[in-house]
Amino acid sequence: MTVEIENEHSKLVGESEPQSNHPPRTIGFISFLSIGYFLVSGGPFGIEGSVSAGSYAYVLLTYIVLPIFWCIPHGLITAELSLMVNKDGGCSVWGEKAFGEYVSLSLGLFSWFAAIVDLSLYPVLFVQYFSNCFNGTPYENDLWGGGMETCTHCRLLIAFAVIILIVLMNCWGAEQVGIFSTILSVILLTPFIIMVVMGIGHVELGEILRVDGGLSNFKGVQWGVLLTNLVWSTSGFDATGQLAGEVKNPKRNYPIGIIGVMIITITSYVLPLLVGMQYDRDYANWQDGQFSIIALKVGGQWLGILLSIGGMVSSVGLFQCNLCTSARNLYSLSDRGYLPKVFSKLLPRRETPFVAILTNAAIVCILILMPFQAIMSLDMSIYSIVVTLEVIIYIKLFVWNPDYDRPYKAITTRWLLPYMASPMIFTILILALSPFSIQWKTLVAVAINLAIVATRYFHNKYKQKNQIKSNNILDYEEESLIKKYSIN
User: In whole angstroms, what is the distance from residue 471 CA to residue 476 CA?
Assistant: First the structure.
């Protein structure tokens, strides 16, 4: 007779018990389309600076042709990998699937950093557009009106109020974020639709295409400015992957939704640019906010005010959607054991990752109080690293793991892999053409990221060593008990 001794072995570090509850699938197609639009675009605000790069013909061609090699591959990679993992976490979960926990942690931290820097921009932009609404009115110089830029506490109070309202919306649920985003996208696009309808009939395409030498002035184009603006204004498809566990009917909604976002984004850029180029032929004049001036020329002050309201709405939509997805990043890292468990806590009844939401919002509140231009300038460099790693992950899974279940396949042959890797051309150019001041700061950010991952690696090794030692002791004690109580 032997006495059986139950020996309960704990899991290795890096593995964690799955959560019994996750945010529910509540995001329908229209909500997903609206959230995706704000994650990728948020309207034509901010693309005006690309026109100053030179020839109107090359600017238009860039926004029509280059998305074929940037947006489409990146969007399709997002759709395929999101459906493959089918849970919240986006690129961090994809990295785990392809290369394990350390790539997952590194990619998750890079993605979170880029998102949090973006988040800190939007409350400030909201205040600027709010102030612009009073231009040309009796309240143009009022501290709570057009003169708000000179009143620090006025700006901060409104920025904090926006943050609080959006935090409450996010804690309410992703479904509500999607519904509100749909409303905001309609309000945002309405003044641009009006501007295009009123101005498109006046467009003389031939004359526009001849500005600054037209196609013959290739060398005169500031390609660095133009490409950076294009990539910046069409980035964010991968952020939709953070919500993969909350989208209804994902097999249908992800591919169609992402293609829909591409079409709306490019259309909402090219048509307003065409009208704007007709009303302002001097490309050197173009800068951020130029569409407001063009709206005044096309429709008068009322259209300019509508456009400023659209800018406010854009900032709110961008903030709430990016807060929603960046919180899922923290939630997923925590849920899989890479960050403290507190970040994966869900709000009772609403089932939203409220700790992750509040953490991101608190960091944003701190950032908008600080002169963080140096950090902001790293945004595109860090994001370029994220996209590069995402493409490598896709290639690795496609070539070495063809047996993984794929509800949706972007491509079916290896011959198309070079096309799917084409976003890396843009990311490498951005990194290579960045000023030295950005490059060395990027290297510092990479070093910090690797130090965090290395710390986790050595911590895991230490825990595993202690666990093996503990298991050996338990096995020895079990063997001693068996010998003691066994009946020969």
Answer: 8
CB neighbours of residue 394 within 10 Å: 25
Radius of gyration from C-alpha coordinates of the chain: 26
Which ranges of 87-173 does DSSP label H, i.e. alpha helix?
91-99, 101-132, 152-172
- pTM beyond cutoff 0.85: yes
Q: Which two tokens stand for residue 310?
A: 């659209």
Give pairs for 416-420: CB < 8 Å, separation 24+: 419/69, 419/73, 420/73, 420/76, 420/77, 420/391, 420/394, 420/395
| Rounded Cα gap, residues 29 and 63, in angstroms | 26
CA proximity to 269, closest of 59, 54, 58: 59
| pLDDT tens digits along 130-169 | 887 777 777 777 877 777 777 888 888 999 999 999 999 9
The per-residue pLDDT for range 451-483, each reduced to its tens digit, is: 999 999 998 888 888 777 777 666 655 666 566
Amino acid at the residue 332 = S
- CATH homologous superfamily of 29-371+380-432 equals Amino acid/polyamine transporter I (1.20.1740.10)
What CA–CA distance (Å, rounded) separates 313 from 180?
11
Q: What is the DSSP letter of 18?
A: P
304/146 Cα distance (integer angstroms)? 14
- Output the six-digit token pair for 215: 């196609």
CA 245 to each of CA 82, 85, 219, 261: distance values in angstroms, whole numbers, following the listed order: 9, 9, 47, 19
- In one letter, which amino acid is 61? L
Whole-angstrom distance, CA of residue 305 vs CA of residue 315 = 16
Burial 260-280 (b: 16+ CB within 10 A, else e): bbbebbbebbebbbbbbbbbb
**Is residue 237 within 8 Å of 37, Cβ to Cβ?**
no
DSSP state of 134: T
Cα 182 from Cα 272, distance rounded (Å) = 21
CB 129 within 8 A of CB 316: no
The CA distance from 168 to 327, in Å, is: 13
Q: Which residues contact 170 (CB under 8 A, 6 or more apart)?
A: 177, 320, 323, 324, 327, 352, 357
365: left (phi over 0), alpha (psi -120 to 50) or beta: alpha
Query: CA-to-CA distance for 101 and 446, rounded, in angstroms?
Result: 17
Q: Give the DSSP letter of residue 408.
A: S
